[in-house]
Amino acid sequence: MSSISDNIKNVRKEIDEIAIKAGRNPDDITLLGVTKTVDIDVIEEAIEQGITEVGENKPQELKRKYEAIGDKVKWHQIGTLQTNKVKYIIDKAYLIHSLDRESLAEEINNRAEKLDISVNCLVQVNVSKEESKHGLDLNEVENFMRTCSEKYGNIKILGLMTMAPLNAKKDEIRDVFRKLKKVSTDISNLNIKNIEMRELSMGMSGDFDIAIEEGATIVRIGTSIFGNRNYENKK
Ligand SMILES: *Cc1c(COP(=O)(O)O)cnc(C)c1O
User: Which distant-in-sequence residues (6+ apart) come within 8 Å of 219 by Cβ?
Assistant: First the structure.
């Protein structure tokens, strides 16, 4: 059985090799360890082995683990965020990947304003238009950016996030990532105030190679580091 230490080394090595092959600087790609369902002691071990940023998809879990582990890693909220759960993570998440509607922007902004902080967000896009997935349509992204820029001054948008369709062919996955990159470039060229397009969060254990080739700056890796998740035994 491979250890977490080996897994982290192997994934990082793969990321670096793919980046170099694609003519990119490996330092431009953040390995985000996805720790949903992973216990605190195992996360601590991953941190000892070099993981510097972790992603949780449930806000209460992020809060619980943050309270045990603290600031020695950067915490990312990567999963769907209900408006009534913003309070758990507003002052803990370094980056929220799942901003996908105005009501959520409003709630994040209100809470951020009260705390006098600025909150980093990525706008989640549902490129493949799967009904099961959250996120804006590609053609809604520009208007949403303009709205956030005008109305929600305590939100700092740093880029875009997407998930490729499950079980899709490589060509389809590549097409999804390429479309996200294109929108990112287009938005960047508009120079909207408070909107930066420096991060592209795309690619998971099964497709991070394609994502890096297409410009990902954050890859979200769970299974390849921590093994398969067992949802029946763990919460
Ligand atoms: C679980 C999850 C991941 C990681 O998926 P793996 O296939 O285990 O690497 C990435 N992004 C999001 C939003 C997730 O929920």
Answer: 15, 29, 30, 31, 32, 202, 203, 204, 208, 211, 212
